[in-house]
Specification:
Number of helices: 2
Oligomer: single chain
Pfam family, one: Polyketide_cyc2
Largest sheet: 6 strands, antiparallel
InterPro entries: Polyketide_cyclase/dehydratase, START-like_dom_sf
Distance between the termini: 11 Å
Strand order of the largest sheet: 1-2-3-4-5-6
Strand content: 35-45%
Shape: globular
Protein name: Polyketide cyclase
Structural class: alpha+beta
Organism: Mycobacterium shinjukuense
């Protein structure tokens, strides 16, 4: 599934962050797969590291934050067959905010970025690689 491959290899293209892989996954054939760690800089200031904890091509990626100011951050990206023959993307995250950072504004900001930045970019990239 091209969408799964895109999400596992080019996730940073969907977010306004700088990202690099700092640890390869356990399978040399899938360096972005299980147990790989990616380091990101959010807004150029918050360093975050995320580890892939579940990697089941072509359907499921789960990750958790292992370093950074956001606590207990868990992400789940699940792909299922859509009713129209396409693919349904279900992306969910849960996290605790650090002291002094209100959760609702952070949640609203992430939702806005996903809807107005990430999804349009994903649609554009998927249209070009068909």
């Amino acid at each position: 599934m091209k969408l799964f491959q895109f999400l596992s290899h080019h996730w940073s293209m969907l977010w306004p962050v700088r990202q690099r892989r700092v640890r390869d996954g356990v399978d040399p054939a899938e360096p972005n797969g299980l147990r790989s760690v990616r380091a990101q800089r959010v807004l150029g200031i918050w360093p975050i590291q995320e580890e892939i904890v579940t990697y089941r091509p072509p359907r499921l990626i789960e990750y958790r934050t292992v370093r950074g100011p956001v606590r207990n951050h868990l992400g789940r990206i699940e792909l299922t067959d859509g009713p129209d023959g396409g693919t349904r993307l279900d992306y969910r995250i849960a996290f605790d905010t650090p002291p002094g950072v209100p959760g609702r504004p952070l949640t609203a900001a992430l939702d806005t970025i996903w809807r107005h930045w990430s999804l349009p970019r994903l649609r554009r990239y998927m249209t070009t690689i068909r």
